[in-house]
Write a structure and sequence with these properties.
Keywords: Carbohydrate metabolism, Glycosidase, Hydrolase, Polysaccharide degradation, Signal, Xylan degradation. This is Endo-1,4-beta-xylanase. Helices cover about 30% and strands about 15% of the residues. It is of the alpha/beta class and about 425 residues long. The chain has 2 domains: about 5-40 and about 350-420, no CATH class; about 50-350, TIM Barrel (Alpha-Beta Barrel), CATH 3.20.20. The longest helix is centred in the N-terminal third of the chain and has 24 residues, at about 5-30.
Length: about 425
């Protein structure tokens, strides 16, 4: 009816207006400068549990129990092409069978990346690789015979039809140690794999080869410019930003990838962050690691990423952030934060997220009958007035501790807090 407005739509509009007014008031209270960091167009739909996914290494030599926290999906390791088909006529599915049975038992979807050419099939059998240090060279080379690639994809897709639904076409092809072939050959391999996968299971989801870091944007652009985007349902990327860069730097990189997608007419395709975290040999303080993980999950979603696979659940060497202890089970602060951030975000609609020049971030999450806000200060601990319009009465920390708001302003640090 002309002039009418559904109640829910009106409520959403009022909330968005209140968020903008409250955010502007907060930012003006902090400084006279305008908002300097915006995450762009917000997704607008409820955040699904599948967004909170994880790389889990499950190394065959280690005892890694199933994670004790909610898990939306997991990306596999140690079951690449070179692992499964070490010899031309020998397929070893024992480990992948275990993974698939485990995923079905826990109702968690697998994302399997189809990567790394066995040495016997490689066109560069002596080329170095640093991806699988225990494997022989040659994994980074294109296959000499494309039929070998088709046979592998057909065999694995047929065996796991209906049990593995998500496939990623290569791991970090912008790195010579992972892929030393041409962009054109990667497009060809993507076409062969996509066609085969869809013939076997038309409902499956195919993720593009996932380049990494800022240096990978050029590869992605070249891959898409040569038609690679038509052989993927989802654009995959690894949004690593460097050992010393904070999570907010991911927004800039995500926007660069989205700009390439837009230029190639692919803005409508979902964007997945299939691997990201903080690698290095210097461990961050545990509370800082927890804060960075939480901020990364908030900002990836706000910037337009629809699934995020953290790297990695049980990694304890070469990482700056540990989620579990040496027993691969006991949660560290970052592991607790992974569970907490899911509770805050899953099922909610992100209706606003912005940052000020001084590093203060404010994000709003709306549910059917409530609105909550998450705040953090990326630069330093600071005091922040809680707008009366929020009608907030408590603050929840990443460790799950809740405190009543006894005074206003409140103290906000590098770790996000939920204000409700």
């Amino acid at each position: 009816m002309a002039g009418s407005w559904p109640v829910r739509a009106q409520a959403k509009f009022v909330h968005r207006l209140l968020f903008m007014l409250s955010a502007v008031a907060l930012l003006n209270a902090r400084s006279a400068s305008p908002i300097s960091d915006q995450t762009g167009n917000l997704p607008g739909q409820p955040i699904p549990s599948s967004y909170f996914s994880m790389n889990i290494l499950f190394h065959p030599k280690n005892h890694v129990p199933w994670p004790s926290v909610p898990l939306g999906g997991w990306r596999t390791w140690h079951v690449n092409w070179a692992d499964i088909q070490e010899q031309p006529n020998n397929f070893d599915f024992s480990l992948l069978d275990k993974y698939v049975n485990w995923s079905q038992e826990h109702h968690t979807e697998i994302l399997m990346h189809l990567s790394y050419t066995p040495r016997w099939a490689s066109s560069t059998p002596n080329a170095p690789t640093d991806v699988e240090v225990t494997k022989p060279p040659g994994l980074s080379g294109p296959p000499r015979n494309m039929e070998d690639w088709r046979t592998f994809v057909r065999t694995v897709a047929t065996r796991y039809k209906g049990r593995i639904h998500n496939w990623e076409l290569w791991n970090e092809p912008n790195r010579p140690q992972s892929w030393n072939g041409s962009v054109e050959t990667m497009v060809q391999m993507s076409r062969e794999a996509y066609t085969t996968l869809k013939q076997i299971d038309p409902t499956c989801t195919v993720v593009s080869p996932a380049a990494e870091e800022a240096k990978g944007v050029e590869f992605l652009d070249a891959f898409l410019s040569k038609g690679g985007g038509q052989y993927a349902d989802v654009i995959g990327y690894h949004f690593y930003v460097g050992a010393n860069a904070p999570p907010e730097a991911m927004v800039t990189l995500i926007n660069s990838v989205k700009a390439v997608m837009a230029e190639r007419g692919l803005s409508s395709k979902p964007l997945w962050d299939t691997e990201a975290g903080w690698l290095g040999n210097t461990m961050l303080p545990p509370e800082t690691g927890a804060a960075w993980l939480a901020r990364a999950y908030i900002l990836n979603w706000a910037a337009g990423v629809s699934r995020f696979y953290w790297y990695a659940w049980e990694i304890q060497h070469g990482t700056q952030i540990e989620l579990v202890g040496p027993d691969n089970a006991t949660l560290k602060p970052a592991g607790v934060a992974f569970a907490t951030i899911q509770k805050w975000m899953t099922g909610a609609v992100l209706t606003g997220c912005s940052g000020a020049r001084d590093g203060l971030w404010t994000c709003a999450f709306q549910r059917e009958n409530s609105v909550s806000h998450v705040m953090w200060s990326a630069a330093k601990e600071t005091t922040v007035p809680v707008p009366p319009a929020w009608q907030a009465h408590e603050v929840e920390a990443l460790n799950g501790n809740r405190t009543q708001i006894q005074s206003n302003p409140i103290t906000v640090g590098i770790a996000p807090v939920l204000i409700q």
